[in-house]
Specification:
The protein has 572 residues and is mainly alpha-helical. It holds the Pfam family PHO4. It is a multi-pass membrane protein. Keywords: Membrane, Phosphate transport, Transmembrane, Transmembrane helix, Transport.
């Protein structure tokens, strides 16, 4: 049986001459001691063993996020040896060797992958219609530079923001890092290509006043390219240290800096900027509150149930029905008639719930029956009044494995949905300014809506996948390991809460950041277990990176614009 299975599979043991299946075991990570002798091959999600996070105050130089965050979780018998090896490897290994460890491949293969990505990034634009369209060599050179700038921004979105979808799954053990990266790569590209918006505006996010820049195409072009370069630069710095920051805030900060310096104070919609900045507070608080409630509900209604495994199996279809219905209604193109759209979303939710219920019964039916018989034959405990905020001890043994297996499966599904939706939504942060800049070169720029070519959407999707492949593990380490210790139930609570908050807040028009919401949701799960379960040093570093995102983006944008305007004087 493979040790890298994302959630569970079956190992059936036959007892006696009749050959009747005695148990069905979850295939997860490490062998579990002291399980009933009838249950064989049972493996479980390990609790994350996390080395203390290095902080800003503990070193003169900032620590960079590395794959060693994942390598530290090992067997207790060899913990010291593993720690020594990890330290030696961390001291002497390069970026490519870290990537090789993430994918369990050789450094030479990692080098090959990086070379192929770099070669594709430099050569594919030469064959794109957006470049061929321009006649003069100068215009082609500017179009080529624009496409590379969009790729650079998309690359950094993949390196940083994709952790929103996959970080908790890796931290809880529901997915290995390699599985998470490969799964997210497929879904992020599919979301960007299939669901990415085909319409954008020259003035992104409603931050700048369009009329201020009418008739200043050269300046506007420089500002758009500078915004991409500035946002990409700060994202790359944040990713190198494992800080999860908002790509939306990066773009907003870059455009604000450009607008103030080159358009004046009146070029910025300050109310919109205040609205975006307020998400620093609203997003993490809402995420923390909802994840706190979800995790407490799991402990109250699943952990404290007479048969926690059966309670988890019963709760899974309900959670899937709720999640798939909400996501279908909010994210997928359904009927424009409200009543029909509701029925379509409910139908999608019902189909998802039926499929999940059948999978669970097929995979865990024998084990669930076996545990139910044991519980029925045992002396029943007197009914205890368990409060919602009570500290409830979790199940143990086979019951714990059933619960973790069910919620691990749910977490993988929620991560897939979030990854697909993220690719469709956040690709616009890179592709929007890119399409607007290309429209200026084509002479069709205006404050009206601009159509984004399909090939440009695919280009943005490729950039996200490339960044995720080469650097995605860094922020995944922070989300999944360094804020608080995650298990499948905690990871599901955080991810389900974050997805719910983002969906409903977006529908209500509230200023929300998916990155900030998920970080808050992970913190909320930690707080549900006790205030000391959240690593304050990591949280302080993350919050500090949020607060400087807009100012740093603004300053970088100003610098890049000053530089580009001098260069463009020769081309335009």
């Amino acid at each position: 049986m493979s040790q890298s299975s994302p959630f569970f599979s079956i190992a059936r043991a036959h007892a006696g001459a009749g050959g009747r299946a005695a148990a069905a075991a979850l295939l997860l990570r490490h062998p579990v001691a002291q399980l009933p002798p009838r249950i064989h091959g049972l493996r479980y999600f390990p609790s994350a063993i996390v080395s203390p996070a290095k902080t800003l105050n503990s070193h003169l130089s900032l620590p960079r996020a590395t794959i060693s965050s994942f390598a530290n979780a090992g067997n207790g018998s060899s913990g010291k040896a593993d720690a020594t090896e990890a330290e030696e490897e961390q001291n002497g290994e390069s970026e490519l060797s870290e990537m090789a460890k993430a994918f369990h491949i050789s450094p030479r293969m990692a080098m090959s992958i990086s070379v192929v990505i770099a070669f594709a990034a430099l050569t594919v634009p030469l064959a794109m219609q957006s470049l061929v369209f321009h006649g003069t060599y100068k215009m082609k050179a500017l179009a080529y530079l624009t496409l590379l700038s969009g790729f650079y921004m998309a690359w950094n979105i993949g390196a940083n923001d994709v952790a929103n979808a996959m970080g908790t799954s890796v931290g809880s053990g529901a997915l290995t890092l390699r599985q998470a990266v490969l799964t997210a790569a497929v879904l992020e590209f599919s979301g960007a290509f299939l669901m990415g918006t085909h319409v954008t505006s020259t003035m992104q996010k409603g931050i700048l006043v369009a009329s201020v820049f009418q008739g200043k195409d050269s300046l506007l072009f420089a500002g758009l390219l500078s915004s991409l370069a500035a946002a990409g630069t700060w994202l790359q710095v944040a990713s190198s240290y494992g800080w999860p920051v908002s790509t939306t805030h990066c773009i907003v900060g870059a455009m604000v800096g450009f607008g103030i310096v080159f358009g004046g104070v009146n070029a910025v919609f300050w109310s919109s900027l205040a609205r975006v900045s307020s998400s620093w507070v609203i997003s993490p608080l809402m995420g923390a509150a909802v994840s706190f409630i979800v995790y407490k509900c799991i402990r109250r209604f699943v952990y404290s149930a007479p048969n926690p495994g059966q309670a988890a199996a019963a709760a899974a279809p309900i959670a899937v029905f709720t999640g798939v219905t909400a996501i279908s209604f909010a994210a997928f193109p359904l009927s424009k008639t409200f009543s029909i759209a509701i029925l379509q979303a409910l139908a999608c939710g019902a189909i998802g719930a039926i499929i999940v219920n059948r999978v669970i019964q097929k995979q865990l039916g024998d084990l669930l029956s076996s545990e139910a018989e044991k519980i029925a034959s045992a002396d029943k405990m007197n009914g205890q009044q368990v409060g919602f905020l009570s500290d409830i001890a979790g199940p143990t043994g086979a019951q714990l494995q059933i619960v973790y297996g069910v919620f691990g499966y749910l977490q993988v599904l929620s991560a897939c949905f979030m990854s697909f939706a993220h690719g469709g939504n956040d690709v616009s942060n890179a592709i929007g300014p890119l399409a607007a800049a290309l429209s200026i070169l084509q002479g069709v720029a205006s404050s009206a809506e601009i159509v984004i070519p399909t090939e440009v959407l695919a280009w943005g999707g490729f950039g996200i996948v490339a960044g995720l492949t080469m650097w995605g593990y860094r922020v995944i380490a922070t989300i999944g390991k360094k804020i608080t210790e995650l298990t499948p139930t905690r990871g599901f609570a955080a991810e389900f809460a974050a997805a719910s908050v983002v969906l409903f807040a977006s529908k209500l028009g509230l200023p929300i950041s998916a990155t900030h919401t998920l970080v808050g949701a992970v913190m909320g799960v930690g707080f549900a277990r006790g205030l000391n379960r959240v690593r304050a040093e990591t949280v302080r570093e993350i919050v500090a990176s949020w607060m400087v995102t807009i100012p740093v983006g603004a300053m970088l944008s100003i610098f890049y614009t000053l530089l580009l305007t001098k260069i463009l004087a020769y081309f335009m």
